[in-house]
Amino acid sequence: MSTYVLLMNLTDKGVQEIKDAPERIGNAVKDLEAAGGKLLSFYTVMGAYDYVAAVEAPSDEVALAQLLGLGMAGFVRTTTLKAFTVQQLAEALKKLP
Fold it and tell me: pLDDT of 64-84, one tens digit each?
């Protein structure tokens, strides 16, 4: 499975309905798991972003569908980073000339 780091900002709607955030987050985790993914960690943070999460998904397409679903709900906007382990980095480096 691939790993993704999600940087999220609340929309105006997300701020207005912040009291429901724990339930929405739980539902998003259930949706991710139903699609074959897994939440690795989730944090509410202070600074440039409101939430940071690390997730696994079986494919980029599954990750994309989940991210689009989050966006469609209208509570957060995401910036997504595909993450690579040290082992994956080492394998990629072997392919350099």
Answer: 999 999 999 999 999 999 999
d(CA 38, CA 27): 13
- Domain locations in the chain as residue ranges: 2-93
Cβ contact 40:54 at 8 Å: yes
Q: 21 Cβ partners below 8 Å, 6+ apart?
A: 14, 75
Q: Which two tokens mark 84?
A: 């690579």
pLDDT at 32: 97
Cβ burial, residue 16 (10 Å; 0-12/13-18/19+): exposed
What's the distance, CA 2 to chain centroid? 12
> At 31, which amino acid appears?
D
The CATH number assigned to the domain with range 2-93 reads 3.30.70.920
